[in-house]
Amino acid sequence: MDSHFSLDYSQQDKLIDFLNQYYSLEDLYSLCRLLELNKDDIMTQYVPKRINCERFVEVIKQREYYYRLFLLLQTEKFYRETLIVYFPNVNITKPKKTPELEELGRKVYSSSSIGNEGQVTHEIWIEQCKKSTVLILGKDSPDEYMKELEEIGKVVQERGYNPIFIKKQAEVDISSNEEKMLTYASLSRFIIIEKSYAAGQIDEAKICAINRFPAIWLRREGHGDTWMQGDYEADFKFIKNFCYDENNKNDVIKSAIEWVEEFIDTKREYLNNIYPWR
């Protein structure tokens, strides 16, 4: 697939129809985030989905992002069998598998000229991490506790982020457990800490607070890891507690993400104003 290919008017209409028929509004939000587009500038839940699709495709056209979009549409999460039917003349392949997906993500972000020989620079790599990576901490053993964290990760991923779990990351032999966690926390856009059970995340929560990382603290109703940190949000405005039960867990997580994104936007505006070199 040519990295500079474009669609004619009839193909643009097909793309609108395809997105409207096979993708939810949440899917479109995820695509916006992965393409570094502000969904709020493009879409609204108060109009028919097709209109949102039309607006989305128009922005893709203006930014010349067709190549990036079609790369994403060939990943496991977004691939639909009818993609080949709608676009028989585009070199479509079956969904990319991990670790191909990781390489695909690199290609999406480096499809424009980035560095020499198409390599992603450290600056660009860090910038992309800070835009999409979410570190999820909490009690992760035995396996049933890790499954709870993974359920949170699924909701996070549906919102267009890339969730990571410390336990699943490879060890670096010169790093302590604390250094390993701090490395991933520093690269994350924000952190979610599941604080329903006493475990290592108690220490991790304090480390994150000291380093001023934006953090969502989740707690199952009637549970908690320690009262010693129960009042942190009174002094740290980048931390907020959210309680949930099994009936509203996903909705609470989504509300928490909306809160932290609003905080990040406010912080960005403040930093850009206060630092004269920006």
Briefly characterize the structure:
By secondary structure, the protein is an alpha/beta fold. Helix content is 51%, strand content 10%. Helix 1 crosses helix 4 (49-63).
Word description of this protein:
The chain has 278 residues and is α/β, with parallel strands linked by helices. The chain has 2 domains: 9-120; 126-274, Response regulator (Rossmann fold, 3-Layer(aba) Sandwich). The protein has 13 helices and 5 strands. The protein has helices spanning 9-22, 25-34, 39-42, 49-63, 66-72, 83-86, 100-110, 122-132, 143-158, 177-187, 201-210, 232-235, 249-274; strands at 133-138, 162-165, 190-194, 215-220, 239-244. A 5-stranded parallel sheet has the order 2-1-3-4-5, with helices on both faces. Strand 3, helix 11 and strand 4 (215-220) form a beta-alpha-beta unit. Helix 1 (9-22) crosses helix 4 (49-63) and helix 5 (66-72) packs antiparallel against helix 7 (100-110). It is globular. It starts with 8 loop residues before the first helix and ends with a helix. The model has no long low-confidence stretch (mean pLDDT 86).
Per-chain topology:
Layout: H1 9-22, H2 25-34, H3 39-42, H4 49-63, H5 66-72, H6 83-86, H7 100-110, H8 122-132, E1 133-138, H9 143-158, E2 162-165, H10 177-187, E3 190-194, H11 201-210, E4 215-220, H12 232-235, E5 239-244, H13 249-274
Parallel strand pairs: 1-2, 1-3, 3-4, 4-5
